[in-house]
Amino acid sequence: MTEKKLHLAVGSFVLAGCFALVLLVVQVAGFSFTQDQGSYTLKAKFDNIGGLKVRSPVKLGGVVVGRVEAISLDAKSYTPVVTLRMDQQYGFYPETSSLSILTAGLLGEQFIGLRPGFMDDDIELLGEGDFIDDTKSALVLEDLIGQFLFSIQDNSKE
Amino acid sequence: MGQLVQIRDMSFAREQRILFDNLNLDIAQGKITAILGPSGIGKTTLLKLIGGQLTPSSGDILFSGESVCRAKRAQLYQMRRKMGLLFQSGALFPELTVFENVAFPLREHTQLTEPVLQTLVRMKLESVGLRGAEQLMATELSGGMGRRVALARATALDPELMMYDEPFAGQDPISMGVLLKLIRDLNQSLGLTSIVVSHDVTEVLEIADYVYVLADKTIIAQGTADGIKSNQDPRLVQFINGLPNGPVPFHYPASDFLKDLAAQ
Amino acid sequence: MINQIQRIGERSINFVTRLGVAGLMLVNALFSQPNWKFLRLVGLQVYNLGVLSLPIILVAGLFIGMVLGLQGYNVLVSYGAEQSLGTMVALSLLRELGPVVTALLFAGRAGSALTAEVGLMKATEQISSMEMMAVDPFKRIIAPRFWAGVLSMPVLAFMFSMIAIWGGSFVGVDWKGIDSGGFWSVMQASVDIHQDIFYGFIKSTVFAFVIVWVALYNGYYAKPSSAGISEATTRTVVNASLMVLALDFILTILMYG
Ligand SMILES: Nc1ncnc2c1ncn2[C@@H]1O[C@H](COP(=O)(O)OP(=O)(O)OP(=O)(O)O)[C@@H](O)[C@H]1O
Ligand SMILES: [Mg+2]
């Protein structure tokens, strides 16, 4: 084993390792090296967040525009408060926008769907730390089944 | 002339078996000192004690006035730079060539340029008659050749104290003559202090300035080579003349063989 | 009874002494000042431990990834959730299988070699003779191997995960026909650099630390005989593997609660 061959082998090994790491970061974790355009937070209160978790995506028409940053409980009203970190590159949303907790598929992960509201002259855009008031809670399977049974009973009475 | 190595009231035991009991021994600076003794008496052990690889249970060993046993790690390594030990087994690095084996201590401790280093290594190999074998792997050497390479390696840094553990084992008469001359030359030209452990009594007595004979955990005789030869101690006479029966036991301590057999 | 207590005492004293010696060895390895010569030695060992382990790591990674893809697909498809195959493969590899399987293979391939090498060096007095040439074997033999191991393992683990994920995508996308865009984008949406890649890196570094330490300790203090060395080699593989698995459990608790 000559010195040169050794250096070549060790050098390639280290480079291949770095290459694997970069590949993992870019291809597997989906990290993009394009400039991070910054972000801002929004907050929202839900009656029930179901299976929502930190890092669950916020989607607008299927595009991920932000992620859940924190979940806490408002001690006075006993309602969950969800903090969202929104990507600035997609811009800002009017205060009439609404959020709903949706499920991908029947058993899939839960995520937040964002529906932008209408724009008008006297309607402002949501900024850092603002609350979105119009929210729809997660569907809870048990409630759903309960409602379903209830409606069957109603139907049979008629 | 001072004493390079002084051993003071040193005791050492290996797993219950006491090898040395209050040993006192001096190695004179610039002289060749021979250490003789029956096999298994602890000669190799003594060299390792001087090199600081083993620690005596009591007593002290001084190298140029400094204690080897109580030295800190860094100090000990500083002292070892001035020592060379030819291992009984040679202990060459099998994955290196003969050349690289001899170059090893030079590469570790000096910043010599490659041409100077090559010249130096070839000189050392030439002195043991193995310059032609420099590209062989250490595993491709015969036993005798290996020990000569080990000798070249041990002397590579021209240490102040050179310890030879059985330098003549496995050498033919010619190489033995060459090695004897080499040891004497190193000693005279460079003023090395040498300790030679060997079973080749007549040859060693030829070059030794002073001789210690070890047996029974301590020194049974010491003196100049001539003094030892004319000593009439029966143990010494037996050892030097190689007689099987006498006061020095040939056997490793054991219970009586006949009794053992009878007991079975 | 008293004898047994005595034996327990002896064992515990031995154990503590061993720990002390192993700690001393580690400290010596960690605090040897680096210079060019040292880096060269580390490079040589990266070759021995890392580069030479590459084939087994890559082949094992490929097969494990493919099996994971196939089994995952079969389970997920019955829930109609085969889109999540990428996520499942990537997360299980990055968080667990990558670091752990690499560590187990590394212990078997490189750890055993380290123990045998150092043990034989000790048995043939090479280490002794080095000491007598005033070359500190902790710095010359132990430290470069230690650092090389700690450097190589994470690199191997990355390569393992990468090729295994590729193997999973091969089965899922090319064979079973999951949509390739879906496979990768669902994976990308759920894999996090910090939570998954970085934590996996931490795990493999910790495992490397333990494996190399165990291997070098066992080699250095092996009994100087053929049986002693073979016993030490076995002990390295067994101890290192068990420690890796136990540590993985602890680290997983700490990281993912
Ligand atoms: N590693 C060891 N562990 C335990 N005992 C040992 C060890 N090495 C040597 N001994 C014992 O120490 C004693 C002295 O050994 P040593 O090698 O010093 O003898 P020696 O005088 O050099 O013999 P020889 O002339 O045959 O080389 C022997 O009885 C041996 O059994
Ligand atoms: Mg001996």
From TrEMBL, chain A:
PROSITE patterns: PROKAR_LIPOPROTEIN (PS51257). Residues 39-117 form the Mce/MlaD domain. NCBIfam families: OM_asym_MlaD. PANTHER family: INTERMEMBRANE PHOSPHOLIPID TRANSPORT SYSTEM BINDING PROTEIN MLAD, INTERMEMBRANE PHOSPHOLIPID TRANSPORT SYSTEM BINDING PROTEIN MLAD-RELATED. This is Outer membrane lipid asymmetry maintenance protein MlaD.
From TrEMBL, chain B:
GO terms for molecular function: ATP binding. It comes from the Bacteria. SMART domains: AAA (SM00382). Keywords: ATP-binding, Nucleotide-binding, Transport. Gene3D superfamilies: P-loop containing nucleotide triphosphate hydrolases (3.40.50.300). It holds the Pfam family ABC_tran. This is ATP-binding cassette domain-containing protein.
Automatic annotation (TrEMBL), chain C:
It is a multi-pass membrane protein. Pfam families: MlaE (PF02405). The keyword Lipid biosynthesis does not apply. InterPro entries: ABC_MlaE_roteobac, MlaE_Permease, Permease_MalE. Keywords: Cell inner membrane, Cell membrane, Membrane, Transmembrane, Transmembrane helix, Transport. The keyword Transport applies. It is found in: Cell inner membrane. The chain crosses the membrane at residues 12-31, 51-70, 146-166, 197-216, 237-256. Belongs to the MlaE permease family. PANTHER family: ABC TRANSPORTER PERMEASE PROTEIN-RELATED, PROTEIN TRIGALACTOSYLDIACYLGLYCEROL 1, CHLOROPLASTIC. Part of the ABC transporter complex MlaFEDB, which is involved in a phospholipid transport pathway that maintains lipid asymmetry in the outer membrane by retrograde trafficking of phospholipids from the outer membrane to the inner membrane. Probably responsible for the translocation of the substrate across the membrane. NCBIfam families: MlaE family lipid ABC transporter permease subunit, perm_MlaE_1. The complex is composed of two ATP-binding proteins (MlaF), two transmembrane proteins (MlaE), two cytoplasmic solute-binding proteins (MlaB) and six periplasmic solute-binding proteins (MlaD). This is Intermembrane phospholipid transport system permease protein MlaE. The lineage of its organism: Bacteria, Pseudomonadati, Pseudomonadota, Gammaproteobacteria, Alteromonadales. The gene is mlaE.
